[in-house]
Amino acid sequence: MPCQQRGQTRPPRGAGRGGGVIGLSAAVAMPDAVLLACAPALALAVDRLLGEPPARAHPVVWMGRWLGWAGARLAPAAGAPAQRSDAGVFWLAALSWCAAAATIFVVSALFQHWVLTQPAWLAALALGLFLKPLLAWAMLHDEVLAVEQALAESPQAGRARLARLVSRDVAALAPHQVREAAIESLAENLNDSLVAPLFWFVLLGLPGAALFRFANTADAMWGYRGERGGRDWTWAGKWAARADDALAWLPARITALLIGALGRLRGWHRLPAEARRTPSPNGGWPMAAMALALGVRLGKPGVYTLHAAGRVAQPSDTLRACAIGSHGALAATLLACVALVVAVA
User: Fold this and answer.
1) CA 202 to CA 65: how far, in whole Å?
2) Averaged over 267-285, what is the pLDDT?
């Protein structure tokens, strides 16, 4: 809504706000812009104070259920005779992904369009509350601390707790490897669970954040290189993996910069080379930044090692990693708010 000039008749409620745009970049009065820009801060506060909504009302859980249902029909059973060619499996999975992503994007866009016709305070409240399920920082932070607490009891307890957080086989991990995996998960998922959704929210509003969370969930459930859960994902998960790589490319590097800056990283020139040691084009960036900032060695046995010259991670390193992550989450949220003020005002 253009800023009202003295003597003008006030336009109808919602006029000029949300007028067909997907993102939030529609000119509004500065007080309204500030209110709308508070949505990320509200989402982070709700995340910390109230945690995750019930599964029956969680949009990411809905996405996961659909992906589980569709994946069981798209990915061929491992070792079974092929019913489709590799190309057929790939394109069927790709089209299914695109159809679901388009549905999520359009539904989110229609909802946001309606929200932006409401008074600014109500629109900001609705945006924050509906953005919250697309973020999951508090749960991640607490789960990583829980791994450290379980390790203090016994290696077995630590491995059991870690299994709730990562997909790798934890049965043979030594205590320090359990700690490494937890710190890696914290760093990588700072991007996936907070920075990247906020990045796409700033660019495209709720549709952007929802699209990223769908892509990231699809990658977690479909994006495997080979057999998992009795199914062959070599071709069925390829599109999902590449889509997530594309959407997370820039946010992952922003996350690495935040971790490095807040962790007082020295030797920035080493970050790109360390990040390239992982198979993922994105996950290595925040993990390598965390390894270098903490001065510890992180890695996945038989796959990669980050900062090989670093020391073995200690319990205090888990606590420091959580602190860096929390400061990074706050910094990313404040940057998102500032970017929205500039875009919306």
Assistant:
1) 27
2) 96
The whole-angstrom separation of Cα 191 and Cα 213 is: 11
* Residues paired with 197 in a beta bridge: none
Are 230 and 168 in contact, with CB atoms under 8 Å apart?
A: no
Q: Express as a percent the part of the chain with pLDDT over 70.
A: 93
Distance CA 21, CA 290 (A): 37
Amino acid at 285: W
**SS3 assignment, position 105:** helix
What pLDDT score was predicted for residue 79?
80
Q: 228: which strand partners? A: 231
Degrees to nearest 5, angle at CA 78 with 92 and 247: 45
Rounded Cα distance between 287 and 278, Å, is 9
CA–CA separation, 117 vs 12, rounded Å?
10
The answer to whether 187 and 289 have CB atoms below 8 angstroms apart is: yes
If we measure between CA atoms, which residue out of 323, 64, 304 comes closest to residue 186? 323
Half-sphere exposure of 321 (CA within 13 A, CB side): 37
pLDDT in the model for residue 5: 44
pTM above 0.85, yes or no: yes
C-alpha separations of 283 from 16, 90, 187, 254, 287 in Å: 40, 24, 8, 12, 7
